[in-house]
What does this fold into?
Amino acid sequence: MLETDGTSGPEQFDDTSLWVVVAQSAALDIPRPVLPVTLNGQRLVLFRDDDGQLGLIGRNCPHRGADLCFGRLEDNGLRCPFHGWHFDRTGQCVEQPAEPLGSQMYQQIKVPMIAVVERGGVILAYVGNGQPQTEMLHKKGGTS
It folds into this structure.
């Protein structure tokens, strides 16, 4: 598990955005690309979905606190190992099994999400305030 206090190895791309390395890209080149990450004391899970996109979301399911690092990686997200709530890379709950037919409760459930980008073989997380300025990153050769 990678732990960072948000000050080690920062990459500052402009005055308003701050990005820190949370993992090497190669760390997700495994059959089940899911890694626990602690960033500024916050427990998160980093994963690559079916489309190859990155997600960095809160590590604990809001239902019963189950660790999403042990969840199933499927359908472009992580499914909680306890009751099967399914979260996409933005942290949005997209499915809630066992709810009555037509229930929309899942739309109100979200775990924290931190913006991430991949650049030069590393994965960077945004630790600044407000929305990240990813266009500055793209100008410097990054990908999202």
Remarks:
- Residues 1-16, 139-144 have pLDDT under 50 and may be disordered.
- The helical segments are 134-139.
- DSSP finds one helix and twelve strands in the chain.
- The CA atoms of residues 90 and 113 lie 6 Å apart.
